[in-house]
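ingest -> fold -> write
write: protein_1
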Amino acid sequence: MDSQECLAETGKDELIWAEPQRQLDEKGSKVRKGVSQDASLISVDPGGSGPCGEAAETRRSRDGDWAKRKTGSVYGYKLHTKADNDHRLVRSLDVTSASVHDSRVDLSNLGETVYRDKGYFGVEPRGFSATMRWASRGHLLCIWVRMRNTRISGRRAPGGEGFRGLEAGVSRWLCAGDDGVTCPGPVDVLPHVL
C-alpha cells in the first residue's frame, strides 16, 4: 500500500485539505460573490500492448477510464474544482475517472451561488444555480438567455483560469506511487471545452 492509499483509507487526506480551508475562513477569505465549478480532463498513458487478462502486467491505472472528446478518446481522470470568485482560491476538489459526466459531481454547499458551464445543465446544485442554459433541438435560446449565459461566463471566467499548476500537481500525484502506474513523460492536462 502506498502513501496515497494510506491517506485515503484513514481519512487523513480530507483532514489535510480541511486545515488550509479553515485557515482561509479564519483570515476572512469567506465566499461572498459565489463560486465557479468546472472540470478538466487529465490524460495519462493507457498502457502498452501485450498479454491480456489477469496475467497482463500493465502500467494502466485501474481507476482511470476512457472519455470521448471532440478530438478523440482520452484515457485518464477528471479533476473537478470549485473556486471562490472573490479570491480565486480552490475551495473544493474531486478526482474521478474520465468517464464521469460533469453534472454527476456537485461541489456546491447550501446557500452559495454556483456558476457552472453548459455541461451541468438540467441538474440542480445544492446551492443557488447560476448554470448556463443549453439550446436543444427545436428550442433555440432567446436573446435574454444568451445574454444570461454571457454574464455567467464572465463571472465564472476568473474561477476557471489559473489552475494549470493545480492540475499538473494532481497529474503528478496520480502518476506517482507504488501501484505500478507510470507516466512516460509529461502528463497532458486538457482544458474543459464548451
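write: protein_2
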Amino acid sequence: MSAAHEPSGSSAQSTGWSANRTLASELIVSVLLIALGAWIWFAAGRIHAPVVVDPLGPTFWPKILGAAIAVLATVETLRVLLKHSRSGIVAAAPAAEEGEDDSGEGPFAPVRFFGTLVFLGLYLYGLKKLGYFVSTPLFVVGVLVTLGLRAWTNLIISAVTLALAWWLIFDLGLGVPLPKGILPF
C-alpha cells in the first residue's frame, strides 16, 4: 500500500465510524422515547380519581401524551433507518473538511444538550416569579440561540409566536391557567 492510499482509507474508516456512531445515537434516542411514551401510557392507566369531574377521565390526556410520544418516536426511528438504508451508512455522515474538528457540532452536542437543560431549569424557576409571558419568550430565545439560531428577527418572531400559541392552547383551549407573574395580564 502506498502512502497516498493510506489517508483515504483511514478517512473512510473514520467517516464510517462517525456515521455508525450517528446512526446508533439516533436509534438509542428514538428507542428511549418509545419506552418513555409506553411508560407514560401505562402509568396513566394507574391514575385513580375518587370523583371524576372531566367526562374524559383523568387518564385521557396522559395517555394521549404517551401515545403521541411513542408514535412520533416510532416515525423518527423509521425515518432514521430509511435514511441510512438509502444512502448507506458511510455516505450518511459527510467527511470532515480540512480544518474542521469534531468538537460537539454533531447530532449530539453536549453544549447544546446541557445548555437546553440549563434554560429549561431557569424557565421552570422563572415561570412562577416572572410569569408565563415574560419567561416563555426568554426560554424560547435561549434555547434557539443554544441550538444555533442567530437571526434576531427569527428569534423574536419564534418566541412571540410560540408563547402566544401555547397560551391559546393551554389557557383558552384547555382552560389551564398559566402563571401571571409580574405582568397584570
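write: annotation protein_2
The radius of gyration is 22 Å.
Helices lie at 5-44, 60-87, 89-92, 110-130, 132-146, 152-173.
pipeline exit 0
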